[in-house]
Structure formats: C-alpha cells, structure tokens
Design goal:
With 327 residues, this protein is an alpha/beta fold. The protein contains 15 helices and eleven strands.
C-alpha cells in the first residue's frame, strides 16, 4: 500500500510505532521497521550515549528507516537534536513543544521531521515551519495528551494543512486504522498496541496490566497542572489524583506530589505497576495478547482491508489530494 506517508518516510506500510519513553528502544523500533512500518526510538530524557547506542543497535538489526523522538521539554533537547542530525536517523518526531529551531538542521541532514500536535493551530504552525507531516494525537492516547479526541482532531487537522496527517490515539486494530483513513489520515501512529509486542522490553507486569485493562480502566492525572497524562488506574494514580486536589496552596502536599511523580513511568516500566505510572491509552481494552511486531502489523493491515467498507488504497489516494468530498 502506498500513501504520501509511506512515500515520504520510505516505508512499506503506513504504520508508525509511537515513541514511548523508557520503553521504545532499539529492540521494538527495529522490529517494527523490519516489519515494514516505522520504528521510533524514544529518547525521552535518556543520556545521549544511550541514544547513540540504541541507534547503532537498531541499525545492526535492520537496514530499513529508523526514527527517533525528541521530547522538547528535555533540557538537553538542543544537544540531542544535534546528535540525531549527526546520526542521520531517517525521521524525527517531536512532542511537547515546537521543534522549529531544529528543523533546518534536521532537513539539511536529510531527516524527515514529523511533529506530534494536538490542535489545528499547532499543525498550521508546524507546516509553516517546514514540517514534512504531522501526527495528530487525540486524547484517547496513552501518555501526555491534549484536549481533543481523535475523531474531532483528525479531520480538523486534515482541513487545516496540506502536508500528510498521521492519526494517533485510539488505534489498536484494523477497524481503528480504517476509521483513521476515513477521517482523512494517510498513516497511523500506534503506542499502546505495541506495548505488548514480543520485542517490547517493558516489564511483563506492565504488559499483563495492559492486557487485563477494560475500557473504564484509564485515568488522566495532571489536568489542572497543565500536564495531563493518561495511564491505567492503580494505587499511584489514585494517590496522585488525591494529592492534586490538595496540592494547590499546600506546600507539603505539593512537595509530596512532586516526589510521587518523579520517575513514576520508569518505576512502572521496571515492574512496579502499583506505585508507578502505567501509561497506556483507552485502547488497552482492545489489547489481549502478546505477539511479534510483524504479526501486529500484518494483522492490522489485513483487518483494515477486511473491516473497511471502502478500499484503503482509494481512501489514501483521495486523502492525498484531500479529495474526500469528490471521492
Ligand atoms: C507508555 C507511553 C509512553 C509514551 N511516551 C512518549 C514519548 O516519549 N514521546 C512522544 O512523543 N509520545 C509518547 N507517547 C505517545 C505515543 O507515541 C503515541 O502517540 C500514543 O501512544 C498513541 O496513542 P495509543 O496509545 O492510543 O496508541 C507515549 C505513549 C505511551 C503509551
């Protein structure tokens, strides 16, 4: 299948594995790229030496394109941006801010730049800054989220920009992928479904919690502080919610909340799924098994064709010219 996203990124299938800090390393990224999607190494706040090592390891496992993700609030973002330009990863995705200061450098290194956005205003700004595509991420997603749902955000962003739009948030199977294309997307970015890929190195307890989750099992912390995060309900999330209510104007509770949040994703990734933040999206409820990344991708592609009342290729072609009104 060819879409503007597959052409742009040099991949065979329009499926991107979302960056997941502390989780998406060379093992998962290389498996996804080797399977024909785009694997992304999540740099998070990891040391630069770790990033370099993971890119090297991914390259040893696959000759296909590899991406890396920069969280722009990382104080080391400028050094990381330069390192990725030197390493010439094929694609950079960015979260939590504007990558505008780095776009020229990345493009000069031949890197495709794909910011993750949560509003049409941000999407337009990124298009003007020279982004090659955007990931429109709805608030169903796991991890740090915006306000709009995928269903509302995707078509709005498709109307607002002419670069390709990749939908993220709430896609875990072929139905979701077909729905994203029906909304105008030309690719999907998937995080939660890949948490239980065999090649994903997150602790088994984390994978089990994702597989056990039902549709009412995610919760968003941090809405009031302006840093909303979707994760699975557990003792950590309950305590964080309780402290959020009392932290404003209460120094002791505020300090306790800060201490609780520090390193919380890492704790869960290491296996403490009670006291850590088990970030996952609402589609955790659709994830019931562990299987190789290749199988996840092949099943998604086959299901998308089977579930769709439309022809996926025709939808992609219509979306490329934003021609859904004529199609
Ligand atoms: C555990 C976890 C960690 C994440 N970390 C990052 C990150 O470091 N950078 C980023 O841009 N997005 C991050 N995300 C968002 C994903 O890349 C992706 O956009 C999202 O998971 C898609 O929605 P889904 O969870 O419904 O598949 C994270 C998501 C999860 C579940």
């Amino acid at each position: 299948m060819k879409t503007r996203v597959t052409e742009l990124l040099g991949i065979e299938k329009p499926i991107i594995q979302g960056a997941m800090a502390w989780i998406a390393d060379a093992s998962l990224a290389a498996a996804v790229s080797e399977a024909g999607g785009l694997g992304i190494i999540a740099c998070g706040s990891a040391p630069l030496s770790w990033v370099e090592d993971q890119v090297r390891k991914a390259r040893a496992k696959t000759n296909k394109p590899i991406g890396a993700n920069v969280m722009l609030m990382n104080p080391e973002a400028p050094e990381l941006a330069k390192l990725l330009a030197d390493l010439r990863v094929e694609v950079v995705t960015t979260g939590a801010g504007s990558p505008a200061p780095y776009i020229e450098m990345w493009k000069a290194a031949g890197i495709k730049v794909v910011p993750v956005i949560a509003s049409t205003a941000h999407a337009k700004k990124m298009e003007r800054a020279g982004a090659d595509a955007v990931v429109a991420e709805g608030q169903e997603a796991g991890g740090h989220i915006g306000e709009l749902t995928t269903m509302a955000l995707t078509p709005a962003v498709c109307d607002a920009v002419s670069i390709p739009v990749i939908t993220a948030g709430g896609v875990a199977d072929g139905r979701g992928m077909a729905a994203a294309f029906a909304l105008g997307a030309e690719g999907v970015q998937i995080g939660t479904r890949f948490l239980t890929a065999e090649e994903c190195t997150v602790h088994d307890a984390y994978k089990q919690k994702v597989m056990d989750a039902g549709d009412a099992d995610t919760i968003v912390t941090g809405r009031d502080s302006g840093h909303p995060v979707r994760q699975l309900k557990n003792a950590f999330a309950r305590q964080a919610k309780a402290l959020e209510k009392t932290a404003a104007g209460n120094e002791a509770d505020s300090a306790e909340l800060e201490a609780l949040l520090a390193g919380s994703l890492h704790r869960a990734v290491e296996g403490d799924v009670k006291n850590g933040s088990v970030m996952a999206g609402q589609v955790a409820a659709l994830v019931h098994d562990c299987k190789p990344a290749l199988q996840i991708i092949d099943d998604l592609m086959a299901e998308a064709q089977a579930w769709s009342a439309f022809d996926m290729q025709k939808m992609a072609d219509a979306n490329a010219v934003r021609g859904w009104k004529q199609a």
